[in-house]
Amino acid sequence: MVWILLLGIATGMRTMTPIAVLCWFMWFATLPVTGFNFWTANIFAVGVFTLLALGEYYVDTLPKTPSRKSTGPLVARLIFGALVGSLVSSSFMNPLAGGILLGVAGALIGTFGGYRVRMSLARWLNNDLPVAVCESLLAVGISAFAMQRLGAEFVLQQHEALLRLPLLR
Predict the structure, then answer these.
(1) CA-to-CA distance for 36 and 26, rounded, in angstroms?
(2) Global pTM?
(3) How far is CA 73 from each of CA 10, 66, 112, rounded to the nearest angstrom?
(4) pLDDT per residue over 7-38, tens digit each?
(5) Domain-by-domain residue ranges, the chain?
(6) Is 36 exposed, middle or buried (0-12, 13-18, 19+ CB in 10 A)?
(7) DSSP state of 35
């Protein structure tokens, strides 16, 4: 599923954004809540991950923030890429391993690719702040777009399932 890869890329750009967006979409019942992803549809999870994402946006603009390529931030991105991938896969009853692998692959792409793009643009503009803000907005946009497409996919699956039901007479 390409949407999991996109969520992983957004996780590589901003660790907490995709999980926060996923929790919002689950709380609004845009995706099915099945199995171990029940906790994502809780207002507490929505609040916690939203606050963590907002904090990450602020901390990312500070000059002393460590590189996303260093061990701690990289491991966090990989873990959250795997988590988001597994949560989406479980919603669609797809194999968790596929979701985890796509989430981790996307997180790697977003981490290293996002870093290169950001550094190039910051050098070109001679200012990192506007690039950091745009990167945060892009991570939110990618996450919301991927979740919206997943929601549309879910609705389509439900519609097809209804069409297969025998008519009651």
Answers:
(1) 13
(2) 0.91
(3) 14, 8, 12
(4) 999 999 999 999 999 999 999 988 888 888 89
(5) 2-153
(6) exposed
(7) G
